[in-house]
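Interim report, section 4.2 (structural modelling).
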Amino acid sequence: MLAFERREKILSTLYSDKKVFVAPLASTFNVTEETIRRDLEKLEREGVVTRNYGGATLNERTSEDLPYQTRNTINLEEKRVIAQLVPPLIKDGSSIMADTSSTVYEALQVLQQSKDHLTIITNSVSILQDFAFSSFDVFSTGGSLRKNSRSLVGPSAIRSVQQYNVDAAVVSCKGISMTQGIMDTNEPEADLKQYMQNQARQVILLVDHTKFGAVSLVKTFPFEQVDCLVTNKKPAEEWLDFFGQHGIDIIFPS
Amino acid sequence: MLAFERREKILSTLYSDKKVFVAPLASTFNVTEETIRRDLEKLEREGVVTRNYGGATLNERTSEDLPYQTRNTINLEEKRVIAQLVPPLIKDGSSIMADTSSTVYEALQVLQQSKDHLTIITNSVSILQDFAFSSFDVFSTGGSLRKNSRSLVGPSAIRSVQQYNVDAAVVSCKGISMTQGIMDTNEPEADLKQYMQNQARQVILLVDHTKFGAVSLVKTFPFEQVDCLVTNKKPAEEWLDFFGQHGIDIIFPS
DNA sequence: ATGTTATGCTCGCTTTTGAACGAAGAGAAA
DNA sequence: TTTCTCTTCGTTCAAAAGCGAGCATAACAT
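Predicted structure of the assembly:
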């Protein structure tokens, strides 16, 4: 048995048991404990494990092996809380429009584990990239590639969106305000979002608590179009009243 | 046994066992360990394996690593030779259709360094991904995401391609034959390629020497449509005659 | 003929491993 | 808490295996 094989086996033990011990490893591989220690030392240098007295434990997922989107996401915890609330709203086999937001991305990651089959129509390059090997049917809107946000926008994307009628549009935004409505930072994406909303039987808006009352550049679509709003903590009473008046189902962790 | 045969056998061992060892390979092929090491070195340069002390392991596609296209490419050296020949064919400021092939991907990498501004229309997710921060204007065709090749295909992609008229289509294929024409392995991509060719003033075909005489499943478009063919080594005389008869400029390293 | 590629061979360097021994840590006993 | 004992660790040395660079040779292509 070669050194790298042994280290691979140690790693696979680590993945299943989360921890390993020097002495038993030494006897199973018929090498001295010194050798095992050196193996663990190497794995530690690579950042895979943390050594401790008598053995080593697996490092939980470092940010390196997470997908691009998740790596660069701020307020990731809040977004994951929201993502966990989405599956009950979506029926198996549904068709969904998804925008470029990281909250929607995380929601799709959760849906991937809880649904057998979904059809996703998106203008997000990250979703195309990371769900290429999923069980989803994925369609791209096409369009002009908008730098820095890796979204596809423009007239071509809009025409494309209009071809589809879907069960739900799952979208996010940059800010919501009772007087100004639902807002985004840039025109092309806000524009496209409006068309997405238009083609969907049900509109699900995902917004974390930092978006409440935040004002942003461009208005997208009015609250009347929203069927369901998912957020990460219970909003203030006036917001609950406001959503009630507009017939919006509001969902937050109990 | 020829060198490339040996490397192919090593590769097939790798695909079944995930790893190989220097010493046993040397004895089964009756060559020195030096030779095996050089084989593995070459495979490592191509991004197929990772070498370790005493052997090498197959690189698994974790799907999250960045240069997916490049890692997955075999004969990368040949493709890069071809890529180097492309810039003189493209004028600064041109618009280009690019397909999903790894040769075209490499050509775009080279163009990025030698041209100020280009407009790229593509059905490749990898290109969207990796050129999002380039100086190119990138447009996606949209369409249905084809798993495993990460290409966008289908009627929606075709409609989209027909919207554009470009200076050049830069495409590759799986095989060319004097009797069968230009061929590909799958229908959706072959189909789209035909429409790409149709919208371009100039059609540039990139093919490495392994494609000559190779027969594949689906015919794409006839040789009459090709304006320029770029390859990595001088083709046989009969091919040169053949290209001459069809008015195709042939380009290879001098 | 000339250049390129594949291969083998040699030599010095690096990696791996085991063995030995003192240092450091953990847990039980005082 | 302090001390004692046993285990575990780190360091060092030496031997063995693997490796890379350079050179020479043969086959092949141009």
